[in-house]
Amino acid sequence: MFDRILIANRGEIACRVIDSAHRLGLSCIAVHSEADAGARHVELADRAVQIGGPAPADSYLRGDAIIAAALENGAQAIHPGYGFLSENPEFVEAVEKAGLVFIGPGADAIRAMGLKGAAKQLMERAGVPVVPGYHGDNQDDAHLAGAADAIGWPVLIKAVAGGGGKGMRLVRRAADFTEALAAARAEARGAFGNDAVLVEKFIEKPRHIEIQVFGDGDRAVHLYERDCSLQRRHQKVIEEAPAPGMTAEMRSAMGAAAVRAAEAIGYAGAGTVEFIVDASDGLRADRFWFMEMNTRLQVEHPVSEAITGIDLVEWQLRVAAGEPLPATQDEITLNGHAFEARLYAEDVARGFLPATGRLAHLRFPEGVRVDSGVREGDGISPWYDPMIAKIITHGPTRDIALSQLRAALRATEVAGTVTNLTFLENLASDPGLSAGDVDTGLIGRNLPALSCAPRASELIRAQAALCAAGLVEKPRPFQGFALWAPLEQTLRLCDGAQSFEARIRCPDARGIIVRIGKAELAFRRIAGGWAGPDGAPVNARRIGDLVAVFAGATFEFRVEDPLLVAADAAHGSDVIEAPMPGLVRTVFVRPGDSVAAGDRLAVMEAMKMEHTLRAGRDATVAEVLAREGDQIEAGAALIRLQEDTA
Length: 646
Ligand code: ADP
Ligand code: ADP
Ligand code: MG
Description:
Helix content is 26%, strand content 33%. By secondary structure, the chain is an alpha+beta fold. The protein folds into 6 domains: 4-103, Rossmann fold; 108-131 and 207-332, ATP-grasp fold, B domain (D-amino Acid Aminotransferase, Chain A, domain 1, 2-Layer Sandwich), CATH 3.30.470.20; 134-201, ATP-grasp fold, A domain (Dna Ligase, domain 1); 336-453, D-amino Acid Aminotransferase, Chain A, domain 1, CATH 3.30.470; 458-559, Beta Barrel (Lipocalin); 572-642, CATH 2.40.50.100. The strands form 9 sheets. Strands 14-13-10-11-12-15-22-20 form an 8-stranded antiparallel β-sheet, with helices on both faces. It is globular and about 80 Å long. The structure holds adenosine-5'-diphosphate (2 copies) and magnesium ion (MG). One adenosine-5'-diphosphate (ADP) is lined by residues 11, 82-84, 163-165, 236, 294, 298-299, 384-385, 387.
């Protein structure tokens, strides 16, 4: 076994690798960008090396700097995590050339699976079923359109170098093909530096079921399947293992196909073979097709660890150090059921827009596995994936594991940045999910209901007022009140766009009454805090002018400063502002242009996702305030429309 390894990654995966490595007695070197100097993975590591600026290209993608850091600090091996350099064969070769071990598959295996098109051709030859489509080299527009016609609509255009759902477009009819092709190519070029695409049949009502495999370069075993059908924009949201409704026959067919795929390329280490399944008629052993192989540890690997009791990072380290496969197929047993939910800083109501901010408050429940790369107080920067944590539950049955997930999500508290927590809670309570009736369109079909955020009741507002008045965190009932009689205080708070007034009275030492509009809510002291009229303890926190109330969901309020209100109202609606920090990729208009409502004005890119800004009404462009290539802040003015004179 190694004594010391370097982890060429950041965030939760770097922390997770360090955990297992420490458990095995290894010393860990972290690398980090300027933006991550104070990050959790840096704190957990035994030593840390700064390798460059915040942009991934200046740090986490700098193979040379990472290898130099490993050599200078006496590491024997490099763990790549996922993303960044994990599937980069040139990096693997450079690591090996430097006399270090790459903890993962060989460069050839990564190359064989690196491009989806070539991988599909290879799998076809190995006898693994593949989605019908065009996977060849001819990238001519007319040829691809012709291929799509021959396959039959709808089709999916995919970046051959794709990952994370990027560079993918669903096209339902021939008329939309050209625009979708251009968009897929542009996204692929930006994210992967390769704009080649493939076209394949779009399976309606599909399920995404993938097999965790593990190889030693010669033989491979599988660790059963994961169902990752709950996706938005082709990105996984909640994953589970095993797949609901899986039959013994289909499991063994899929397991065998995945092992065949891994062995066909002499696979070493942890990998995932992803299949798309036509579940329109239940799960059937002849209705699954190879989609791609991810030649790395996958984000959702913890659910497989939960049901098999195997630590995949431990296996990665042992096999990379030269040990044989730690278990045979017969020794790998399936126990219970597991779920994972991905908690992100993102604005669900605005199309899952990645968000930034400071995690002013962050609490996770006890008794469940939480993999996270951030701590309370940390920032979510615009440079990287905005994942906050993965919440993983494991129970004896699917029902129990899902109840555990619901409870864990309810008990998770985050404030300071917008998150998808309420969305995850809604999703975990979806009747289709409870029934095991999942497919990749489930989220899209139920989006309005899933995106619905509970409105703050008067009780919640009263709790916020209590907290804003400084009475919740350290309950000192006389604080601020003791000198006056009658004891009274008035506060103004903002709930989203709505502002309200709360009057707080303290009739005696043991009680407080909060009046909001016509409602009067009485709170009384209990051990360690306050209880509301429903008897439930108040759980809230004030951070600066922010007040967060945690009551199953997180409710955020701002304590209003009367001076700021006027400035806000003066803001014109004719200005198109950047909805998030990011890069201005394309500006479509010039001053003087007339635009119609819905026209594209500009495209921004943040965290590798593109967002199109459109005109809200018919207008003439007055001013263009940003240039292509500009890196801009959230809220920056991009384009000004002429005043509406009609
Ligand atoms: P899939 O490619 O099947 O969607 P995963 O869900 O495991 O696989 O991961 C999504 C992709 O997003 C990864 O391939 C990785 O490139 C990227 N990614 C996700 N989170 C991070 C992160 N924290 N750092 C770097 N890359 C990430
Ligand atoms: P990535 O590398 O971005 O993970 P994949 O090829 O794994 O790309 O596809 C990502 C997701 O897109 C799948 O999980 C599935 O939801 C959807 N998808 C992919 N191929 C098809 C298809 N042929 N028909 C329907 N949905 C598909
Ligand atoms: Mg995939």
